[in-house]
Amino acid sequence: MAAAVGTTTLSDATPPPCLSPPDEYSLRILRLCAPDHLPHIHSALGSPSAVHPSAFAALFHACARRRLLFLGRCLHRCMLSLLPWPPDLFVANHLLNMYAKCGRLDLARRVFKEMPRRNLVSWTALLSGFAQHSHHDDCFGHLADMLPHHLPNEFALATALSSCAGAARGFRGRQVHALASKTSLDANVFVGNALITMYSSCYGQCDDSWAVFRTMPFQNLVTWNSMIAGFRQNGQLDRSLELFAEMQRSGFGFDRATLVSVISSCSCLQHCQQLHSPVIKTCYDYEVEVATALVKAYSIVGGGTDDCYGVFSWVREHDIMSWTGIMTSFAEQLPEEAIRLFCQLRYKNYSPDRYTYSIVVKACSGFATERHCSAVHSLIEKSGFGDDLVLSNALIHAYARCGSIVMAEHIFERMVVHDVVSWNSMIKAYAAHGRGRKALGVFRCMDIPPDSATFVGLLTACSHSGLVNEGRDLFNSMLKAYGITPQLDHFACMVDILGRAGNLQEAEDLINQMEVEPDFVVWSALLGACRKHKEARIAEKAAQRLVELKPKNSIGYVMMSNIHYDRGNLEDASFIRKDMKECGVKKEPGLSWIEIDNHIHRFSVGARHHPQRKAIYAELNRLVDSLKEIGYVVDTRLVHPETQEEHKEERLLFHSEKLALVFALMNSSASKANLKIMKNLRICEDCHKFFKLASSYLPKEIIVRDANRFHHFVDGECSCGDFW
């Protein structure tokens, strides 16, 4: 079709100054791309009649393969001065394909429109360009325009189907499937593979894609890979693994793509170990993509960090994704190892991306102080990611988890744009630090609709601050005002709110009204409230449900035993302890951590293996004597009644958080600053009173992060208001 009269065409448009004939540097690059045809261009620059159009076609093809848009446009300008316009169909198709592959779809359209003659290749090249660069509506429209002129071949149909998959337009995909059936191309392996991918991507289930797979007359490796990936993508992990086993029985081999998909389908440690064996046998453990998938799978299913690091160490050439993968596996369990790997990554001159930084920030949230978080924050700013929304949200969470609510506020306030995660992160930060009123204030300022996680944060804030009426109102407004159905997390928070306030019957009634089955967390909240208020009847029911849900967890046994002890039922308490021992259930030991001079020091009860144990005991006794003078009384009621009287006080004084505090006071560098201590369990009542008095006596702020929340001890008071 010729260009319309009066319109500007590619042949008569004045090109930009950069579109001069190729310079020497460009020619050197082209010499590497298409060495056989470059001499034709050299001679043509001196003698235009010597050039052959096929030379330009070959060079356009080389530019398309390597996405060399600038050189391709230079060649286009050169061709305009050497050959008559429009060029023949063969050259025009290569020019069109070059612009389409390089993403200049506007220029590809212009070339297409100015072509006096087009064939199936012309239509397919532009169709492919639309699909590759996610112009899905243009792709489907172009296919419709193509039908009056040419019937699409298998490559055009496969391209259109991939575009439907990318846009998740299942209805359009079915229309293309119907066209393929009418032209008898649905039996073609390329079209069949594209159909499997389209149906798996568009409908959230694999019935249609499985039907296509089973009816294909010929299947290749891509066919099996597409079906395995489809099962994995739609959460049918067992079917993905079963199909891989069938694939091996059928005599098909596997490649990198097969392994990446099937490894990602592992749902237990045994599956990972079984797949790890063929990976080693076929030497794919050296491949970075396969190794990264294995590391991720091991970390998800609870494999040891040694397994992850073993896989990582075998890779010959790492990339930033493999480094990010191994750091992800360490971020929660061993955050200090994740930080070490990050330092190693930078030493080897890899450039962290936003995903890498997000994992490092997550690791920083596992430390007692914000020192590491501040260092990574500085690197994020220097790397140009300071305004990144995801990283800003991660920093809010990390600073809050490290005890620095001030820095969390600073990050939030300087953000230009807030999404729902930003608001939720700030609400949860205030909740963890016992600032319920501030959390509610943030909620009132939200300029976007809340989601389910928003209300988890708000209800947690009410629970930690004793805001019973506010919690009730929020819980009741979820469905009525916001259309959000309460889930297990919301019920657990509401039970905690009511239970802490002593409304145990109302909390039990709420559980009985739940439409979903109460989980371990819900019953734990109720049992914890019963422990606080010494309510045995409801506690019996809650403890029984906990034991049924998690027989090896000690919470139900320990809390119920303590309730009986508090009520003087020593025989019942002893029976529960005996039953716990016979069932092989062990109580989780209390541990505390404190960071001093860039080193993390861990303390268990009694610190029996600490090299400075005697000095710590002596310093602890001096501090206890001083605190007793201002009102501290060891609450021996909290100790097991069968413990000998002379050892009861010792059992309480040797709690891990007290030892961590004393050790910090013994180090002059730490004693000058505010102290931050981490603990894996809930802080006991005696330690809570001890730290309140210590903050007044020393005087300094002491921050304790226990399993539930933060406690800021300042001038004899705690931020929790004795409500924890």
**Global mean pLDDT:** 88
- What is the helix tally? 39
Oligomeric description of these chains = single chain
Strand % is under 5%
Uncertain regions: pLDDT < 50 for 5+ in a row?
A: 1-23, 43-49
Distance between the termini: 79 Å
Instruction: Evaluate the radius of gyration.
Output: 34 Å
Provide an overview of this structure.
The chain is mostly helical and 724 residues long. 64% of the residues lie in helices and 4% in strands. It contains 39 helices and six strands. Strands 2-1-3-4-5-6 form a six-stranded mixed beta sheet. α39 links the parallel β3 (675-679) and β4 (702-705). α16 packs antiparallel against α17 (288-300) and α25 (420-432) packs antiparallel against α26 (436-445). The radius of gyration is 34 Å and the shape is elongated.
Looking at this protein, list some descriptive labels.
39 helices
Write the layout of secondary structure elements.
Elements: H1 24-33, H2 38-46, H3 53-66, H4 69-82, H5 89-101, H6 105-114, H7 120-132, H8 136-146, H9 154-167, H10 170-182, H11 189-202, H12 207-215, H13 221-233, H14 237-249, H15 256-263, H16 269-281, H17 288-300, H18 305-313, H19 320-331, H20 335-347, H21 354-364, H22 371-382, H23 389-401, H24 405-414, H25 420-432, H26 436-445, H27 452-465, H28 468-482, H29 488-500, H30 504-512, H31 520-533, H32 536-549, H33 555-566, H34 570-582, E1 591-596, E2 599-604, H35 613-629, H36 645-653, H37 656-666, H38 668-671, E3 675-679, H39 685-697, E4 702-705, E5 710-714, E6 717-718
Parallel strand pairs: 3-4
Antiparallel strand pairs: 1-2, 1-3, 4-5, 5-6
Helix pairs in contact: 3-4, 3-5, 5-6, 5-7, 6-7, 7-8, 7-9, 8-9, 9-10, 9-11, 10-11, 11-12, 11-13, 13-14, 13-15, 15-17, 16-17, 17-18, 17-19, 18-19, 19-20, 19-21, 20-21, 21-22, 21-23, 22-23, 23-24, 23-25, 24-25, 25-26, 25-27, 26-27, 27-28, 27-29, 28-29, 29-30, 29-31, 30-31, 31-32, 31-33, ...
